Amino acid sequence: MRAIYAVLAAGVAMVISLGLAQQGSAGGPYRVVKMAKVGGAGGYDYVYADVDGRRLYIARTGPMPRMTVFNLDTFEPVGEIPTTNSHGAVVDSKSNHGFISSKPILMFDSKTLMPIKTIEVQGNPDGMLFDPADQRVYVLSHIAPHVTVIDAKDGAVVGTIDIGGMPEQAASDGRGHMYVDVEDKANIAVIDTKTLAVTTHYDLAGKGATCAGLALDAKNHILFSACRNPANMVILNAEDGKIITALPIGNGTDGAGFNPRTMEAFSSQGDGTLTIVKENSPTNFVVEQTVQTMMGARTSTLDTKTNRIILIAAEFGPPTPPKQPGGRAGRGQIVPDSFTILAVGR
Q1: Are 60 and 66 in contact (CB under 8 A)?
Q2: Which H helix or E strand runs over 136?
Q3: N or C: which end of the chain has fewer CB within 10 A?
Q4: Tell me: the pLDDT tens digits for 285-298?
Q5: How confident is the model at residue 324 (pLDDT cuts 50, 70, 90)?
Q6: What is the mean pLDDT of residues 90-99?
């Protein structure tokens, strides 16, 4: 196996700015409290906060696919893990094993960032969920098998699950139930993690479709499904699937989370907004705030130690011309070294 660990140069440009902190945050306590323009070539996908290890994992795509690693508190670079491709990462703090959703899956030591082994899987690994309750990694794929289950202790493939459609984001209650947004079916698959079987699907009943973010209040059994069409956060009972309400969010959601310490759910959107939803009670929810972040900041993660939401984005050049008359213009090229990490907090 070729060496796949390299420390980022200490001289990577680091720009911290609080100038955006006062923008677009009227009507609520949240604001952009920190920005770091860390640069680097290529696009980007998921971002993951290892709260215990105080590291931030960001998947970079393009000709040089890799997992970039930063200090979660300072956003200073820690290292890079080159991969065959890369979408996201998760870490098990008990075993100090990390996993990257590439093909094959790359298992690494989260202390040293050195590789341990590769794990052959089927499908096309994309999003991931680590469930500390059973120390398993759930790898999501838009093509079958839709979910591949890996034991985080030794990297063994435990099994696969067919959820009947394209999974986007998953959440677990830590008590044997996992929920998965099925993007192309406008429903949420409910999985028994003991039997690795789908027990039911919750229909979103026209309230939301193309749902790409999912969060869970495990204590009160509330699901928050962030959808693109229409742009709604559909809130439902996790025990029976009954829809409680649907609240408007920004356009282009690709991530959601829930903070049990503040009783707030959030959805990050590519239009440069972050929607914060307050859970006043298990039956009462309101949009607390819409925070202006940065265009393209569609994926996010939560640092539960600081209560900060971490997002990633970059600046883009002019759109490319449509490939055919009447077609849609393509996204412009990323402006070199414009890749940025943002932290939203109080």
Answers
A1: yes
A2: strand 136-141
A3: N
A4: 999 999 999 999 99
A5: confident
A6: 98
Query: Which tokens go with 306?
Result: 């600081």
Structure token pair of residue 123: 């499908």
Residue 186, strand partner residues = none
SS3 content of the chain, % helix, strand, coil (to 5): 0, 50, 45
**Which residue in 153, 146, 158, 149 sits closest to 129, CA to CA?**
149
* pLDDT tens-digit series, residues 231-244: 999 999 999 999 99
- Domains, the chain, in order of start with CATH, read 27-317+340-345 (2.130.10.10)
Cα–Cα–Cα angle for 290, 283, 182, nearest 5°? 70
Report residue 18 as tokens.
Answer: 């609080």
Q: How many residues does the chain have?
A: 346
Quick check: bond before 260 cis, omega within 30?
Answer: no
Maximum separation of any 2 CA atoms in the chain, in Å: 55
CA distance linking residue 298 with residue 15, whole number of Å = 21
CA nearest neighbour of 23 among 273, 251, 262, 249: 273
Residue with tokens 């899956």: 105
Torsion of CA 51, 269, 169, 331, to 10 degrees: -110
